[in-house]
Amino acid sequence: MSARRARSRRLAADIGLLTVAAAFAVPLAWVLLSAVDPKADVGVKSPDGFTLDNFDAVLTDEITFTPMLNSLLLCGGGTLLTVVSAALAAYPLSRYSSRLNRPFMLTILFATSLPVTAIMVPVYALFVRVDLIDTMQGTIFFFAASQLPFAIWLMKNFMDGVPKELEEAAWTDGASPLQSLVRIVLPLMGPGVAVVTVFSFVLMWGNFFVPFMLLLSPDQMPAAVSINDFFGSKGAIVYGQLAAFSLIYSTPVILLYVLIARRLGGGFALGGAVKG
Amino acid sequence: MALFLAGPIGYCAYIAFTDLQLTGQAHESFVGFENFRTAFDDEDFLNAVWLTLVFTFLSSVVGQNTLGLALAVLMRRASKAVRTVTGAVVITAWVLPEVVAGFLLYAFFRRDGTLNAVLDVLHLPSQNWLFTLPILAVSFANMWRGTAFSMLVYSAALSEIPKEVTEAAEVDGASGWRRMWHITLPMIRRSIGTNLMLNTLQTLSVFGLIWVMTRGGPGNRSQTLPLFMYEQAFQKSMIGYGTAVALLLLLVGSLFSLVYMRLLRTEV
Lengths: 276, 268
Fold this sequence. Notes:
The complex is a heterodimer of chains A (276) and B (268).
Chain A: H1 3-35, H2 53-58, H3 61-95, H4 101-112, H5 120-129, H6 136-160, H7 165-172, H8 177-188, H9 190-206, H10 209-214, H11 223-226, H12 239-263, H13 271-274
Chain B: H1 2-15, H2 34-41, H3 43-77, H4 80-95, H5 98-109, H6 114-121, H7 129-132, H8 134-159, H9 163-171, H10 176-187, H11 189-204, H12 208-214, H13 225-235, H14 239-264
Helix pairs in contact in B: 1-14, 2-14, 3-8, 3-11, 4-8, 5-8, 5-12, 8-11, 8-12, 9-10, 11-14, 13-14
Keywords (chain A): Cell membrane, Membrane, Sugar transport, Transmembrane, Transmembrane helix, Transport
GO biological process, one term (chain A): transmembrane transport
GO cellular component, one term (chain A): plasma membrane
């Protein structure tokens, strides 16, 4: 292939990609521009000046801090529960071979791909029965349960990558399985644990439907749901403030994603789960 | 997990056969297949099924999957800077919380929103997208949000194709399209299967995005099954009926899930 053809091909690819990127970027541009625009509107336009008033207006207890704190509690609690349970469940799956392993992994895979949305109505009914509706802990439990199949699946794949010999040494020194899990295996699969943690957290953070259904009182609402208040019910929408809040609310997950993408050298973290 | 996932599913299977309502009723009673019969006679239900099919096909099969593959292929040829920028933009759309994505696209599609402004500049007719073509608008929204996943899956798959194979074909004079069709696609067909399956399952359960953008409206013209289920169960307080719909949705999901497992079978 001649150098010129190679260059013209690369140019064509560049143009193609940039076109798509531009199309994808327009909605993003709206949120960035509107957040600092004193007269923000629904359409993208160059801002009429620069202001931080929108941020000022939303940075109150009621609008930002309480929902964000709720989100943090919900997703933090859910993630912690998920990661601990996933580690405990993945360890025997990865270390001991049993006839039940395969069926169990298949069940997990099956559960991973079920649409969670479909079970929300019965979950709601169940939660009403057992009096967990509108409680933080109930929602945390459900978050963890819905995230767990995927977390176990990922965790097991990462754990399989840790050589067994290191543990055997610890066992001869008299370590219990739990000790060797906590002291040896988990530290060795640090990046794997990080991936599971970040993914669980990001997915919960963005989840709207679960807290929307399971929590009722406004003071418990996470940001995913409270953002809805900017909209519809009050008639007029202050777009600038909405945009500013969207930015604040999105920042943690974007930061986490950047962090983990760096750590894995840009590699695709879900590789273990979707290898085809 | 057994309690929180299997429990609801079992309970779901039970309620679906009752006429449980949210209010004004002491005991639910067993009504057999009544809910299902109602569903299949209900025009709104059939409408939701149809819209779900359209939504899934447009946004996940055509949109996310094809665009994701195209992006992955182009990225292998593009210069590094362009690759980085595109990747960052597309992935940002993916990482954003569902509700935020909904707002962004709501603003994009509104009558006085960005899309119409762009069309105006190009002298193309503008219209109120969310009103005239709501299902198309939400499909695009889902595509905007979900393409990154396919792109990442396919990038990984393409990077595993040995260079020698494509080079050999090139020496033999196979054109770009033919190489794509006869070599690249067959070699990544497992990834395509897996990715299609995951996209479809994801798309089946999309709720927040559509809720924020259109609430299923105008009328019920963008009301997919999850929204229909929500409306029946909570706005019309017919939990039993809503659950029957949920069960049907779950069944469809399970079917897809089973196919997906077969695809991955050898690797467990």
